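During the second half of the funding period, the structural biology subgroup turned its attention to how the target accommodates small molecules. The most pressing case was iron/sulfur cluster, which had performed well in the primary screen but for which no bound structure existed. We therefore specified the complex as follows and requested a full 3D prediction, including the ligand pose.
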Amino acid sequence: MPIKVTIRRDECISDGVCISLCPDVFEWGDDGKAAIVEQYRVGDDLGAGKVPDELEDCVKQAVESCPVQIIAMEKE
Ligand code: SF4
């Protein structure tokens, strides 16, 4: 079952923590805020994605480490 991941990008403070911890899922968007990597993105929203189960631990680390707590994950 894929994992649904969302970033409330308007509140991102661009410190790069999620990208350092989990570069398979998070990258910089052109606007300098964190985005879901293109491979796992859903639709046109840079902050919405579905990622495979094997990346759960790394997404979880990012969720727990984001200083402004704007990353959410949900198992489908
Ligand atoms: S950890 Fe949070 S605040 Fe930092 S870049 Fe990622 S989404 Fe933005």
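Two results from this model are relevant to the next phase. The chain has a mean pLDDT of 97. The pocket of iron/sulfur cluster is lined by residues 7, 12-18, 34, 66-68, 70-71 (CB under 6 Å).
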